[in-house]
């Protein structure tokens, strides 16, 4: 049964506390690993929240750091217990980007730059199905359905009436022009984009071909920010076999500056809506897969 506790966030916060304890002790990750007879990479993964942390791990680390206050140990042990609970996404089986889902579920705002596709949180169900089928040729029908269900569930973050995710999306024109599924699916997706962009917490900007060279030509990325100041802003870079999460302030700042340049070069929100509606009209005139307006 999925818990209301977000295990991904618990792991991140617990890892941050363990790193602070190590630094207060004046020890390196390598020294801690030697004391515990484990690899240095395990200590690093525990501290960056990318690995599940057991209560035994916490006990052993507190022993190495000389933590004598039982209240601190008990608090960390409780966080370790909560970090091993299951988020809602675990009910769908093995999802390769489950760490990202955990972060997205708890984020206060999300800035996305997308090159080839409409961002997942803004996709219609039929578009999401066509994307999954096309990008995962060996998938079974059940695999596709499961991935699409997860994507639709993720979208509850932007429809939450009390605490919606603040979403800012800059989308390259190529994502609007690339046919996914059929002209009808594309037309519906464009109309859906426009409807969502009317929401006060969602901003959609189009980066047209006419802009030419721009800072985002190296690929897509996302920047997640959180309500709790303890949670560091994170840059997410999606990969084929593994993903990259950047949390160092210099890295986040570099991508934030890049995003500001993209926002400035893209069409403003109103012009973007007009642009997308024009693309929707183009798609409405073609229902034959493979024909591009």
Automatic annotation (TrEMBL):
InterPro entries: Cro/C1-type_HTH, DUF5753, Lambda_DNA-bd_dom_sf
Domain HTH cro/C1-type: 18-73
Listed Gene3D superfamilies: lambda repressor-like DNA-binding domains
Pfam families: DUF5753, HTH_31
GO terms for MF: DNA binding
Name under which the protein is recorded: Transcriptional regulator with XRE-family HTH domain
